[in-house]
Amino acid sequence: MNAAQLRRVTVEGFAHYQQGLYELLEDAVRQGASIGFLDDFDRAQGMAYLSELKGQLESAERLLWVVVHNERVLASVQLAPCHKANGRHRAEVQKLLVHIDFQRHGLATQLMNGAELVARQKGLGLLFLDTEARSPAEAFYKAAGYTRVGEIPDYAGRPDGTLINTALYYKLLQGLPA
Fold first, then answer.
1. Nearest CA to 159 among 20, 24, 31, 21?
2. Spatial CB neighbours of 19, under 8 Å, sequence gap ≥ 6
3. What is the band of 177 on the pLDDT scale with cuts at 50, 70, 90?
4. How far apart are CA 39 and CA 26, in angstroms?
5. CB-based contact 132:139 (threshold 8 Å)
6. Is residue 41 a contact partner of residue 49, using CB atoms and an 8 Å limit?
7. What residue ranges define each of the domains in the chain, with the CATH number in brackets?
C-alpha cells in the first residue's frame, strides 16, 4: 500500500484522528483482540479511552502514530516511555493495531520503524511489549528483531472473557541516537 502515510499524532492534532482511532479500536475488539475491552465495548467506552489517551499525549506519558490513507486511519501504535529515574532508557510498545482489511500490507512494520526511530532520537535503548502467545503477532515481532523472554499464563482476557497466555518481548535499539 504505497499511498499510506505514517504520521505522529500530537495532542494538537488528536481531534483529527479521534474518530478513526475509535473505528480501529472497535475493529480490533470485534476481531477478538485482547486490548483491554470486553464484548460489551461501545462508543462510550471507546471515547472514554481516547480521552484518556489524549491526556497521556499531553503529559508525554504516551507517543502515538497512525498510518492513514485518504485520511482514513488504517493502523496505529503507542509508545509509553518510562518516567522513573532508573527506567528512562526504556519504553513499552502498546496497542499495535491494524484494521483487518489492511493487515499484511506492511503497515505494522511502517509503524514499528517510525516508533523505533523516534525512540532512538529520544535516547531510548530498550523497547518491550507483550502479545498473545502463539498468535501471528509473535512471528511479526520475531521478524522485527524482538526477543521472546517468556510467557505468563492466563494474563489477559479476550473480549469474550477467555483468558489467554501472554508472551513477553524486548528489543535493544542499536546505534543511539538515530
1. 31
2. none
3. low
4. 10
5. no
6. no
7. 5-126 (3.40.630.30)
Please give the grid coordinates belonging to residue 145: 528483531
pLDDT in tens, 119-129: 999 999 999 99
Asked whether the bond before 81 is cis by omega within 30 degrees of 0, the reply is no
Query: What are residue 170's DSSP bridge partners?
Result: 128, 147
**126-132 β-sheet, strand order:** 5-9, 63-69, 72-81, 90-98, 126-132, 163-172, 147-157
DSSP conformational letter for 156: E
State whether the Cα torsion 101-144-77-68 is positive or negative: negative
Q: What is the pTM of this model?
A: 0.93
Residues 6+ apart with CB under 8 A from 87: none
How does pLDDT run across 28-41, given as a tens digit for each residue?
999 999 999 999 99
Give pLDDT tens digits for 33-76: 999 999 999 999 999 999 999 999 999 999 999 999 999 999 99
